[in-house]
C-alpha cells in the first residue's frame, strides 16, 4: 500500500495512476487496509487526484475515497473534499461514470448528518439530475436526497431549492 501511494505521488502517467487507484480502491474493501491507507497519508494523496484533469483518474480516485469512506475516521479526513466533489458533479457529463462516482461518495458521506451542510449548495443540482438523469443516476441521487432528508436541519434547504 505504501508503494502504491508513493507511485501515485511520483507519476504523471494517467494509466499508471488509474491502475494504482483501482488497486487502492480494492484494498480499501478490507477495514484493516482503510486504517493503513489513512495512516500512510493516502487519503490526502488520493484526494489530491481529484484535481486531475483526466476524468478517468478523478473517477478512480472517487471510487477509492468511496471505499475508504466506510470508516468514520476516514470520513473526518475525506470531508474536506466534499465541496470540490460537489463541484465535480455539476461539471461532469450527465449520467457519466464520473458523475455516478461522485454520487456514490456523497451517499456514503451523507449517511450521518455531520457533513450535510457542505452539500447544501448542490441540492438544486441533485434535483436537476433527478429529473434529467437516467435511472442509474436517479437512484443514486435519491440515495443522497433520502440521507439529507433524514436531517431536520436540511428540510428548509430541500424545500426551498430552485430547480
UniProtKB/TrEMBL annotation:
GO terms for cellular component: mitochondrial outer membrane. Its main location: mitochondrion. InterPro entries: ARM-like (IPR011989), ARM-rpt_dom (IPR006911), ARM-type_fold (IPR016024), Armcx_regulator (IPR051303). Pfam families: Arm_2 (PF04826). This is Armadillo repeat-containing protein 10. It is found in: Mitochondrion outer membrane. It is a single-pass membrane protein. It comes from the Eukaryota. Keywords: Membrane, Mitochondrion, Mitochondrion outer membrane, Transmembrane, Transmembrane helix. Residues 1-163 form the Armadillo repeat-containing domain.
Amino acid at each position: 500500500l505504501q508503494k502504491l501511494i508513493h507511485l501515485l505521488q511520483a507519476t504523471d502517467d494517467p494509466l499508471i495512476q488509474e491502475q494504482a487507484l483501482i488497486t487502492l480502491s480494492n484494498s480499501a474493501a478490507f477495514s484493516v487496509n482503510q486504517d493503513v491507507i489513512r495512516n500512510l497519508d493516502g487519503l490526502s494523496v488520493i484526494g489530491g487526484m481529484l484535481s486531475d484533469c483526466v476524468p478517468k483518474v478523478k473517477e478512480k480516485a472517487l471510487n477509492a475515497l468511496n471505499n475508504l469512506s466506510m470508516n468514520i475516521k476516514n470520513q473526518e479526513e475525506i470531508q474536506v473534499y466534499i465541496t470540490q466533489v460537489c463541484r465535480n458533479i455539476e461539471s461532469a457529463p450527465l449520467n457519466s461514470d464520473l458523475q455516478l462516482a461522485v454520487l456514490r461518495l456523497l451517499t456514503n458521506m451523507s449517511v450521518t448528518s455531520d457533513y450535510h451542510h457542505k452539500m447544501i449548495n448542490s441540492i438544486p443540482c441533485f434535483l436537476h439530475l433527478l429529473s434529467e438523469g437516467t435511472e442509474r443516476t436517479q437512484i443514486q441521487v435519491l440515495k443522497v436526497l433520502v440521507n439529507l432528508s433524514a436531517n431536520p436541519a436540511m428540510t428548509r434547504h430541500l424545500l426551498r431549492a430552485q430547480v
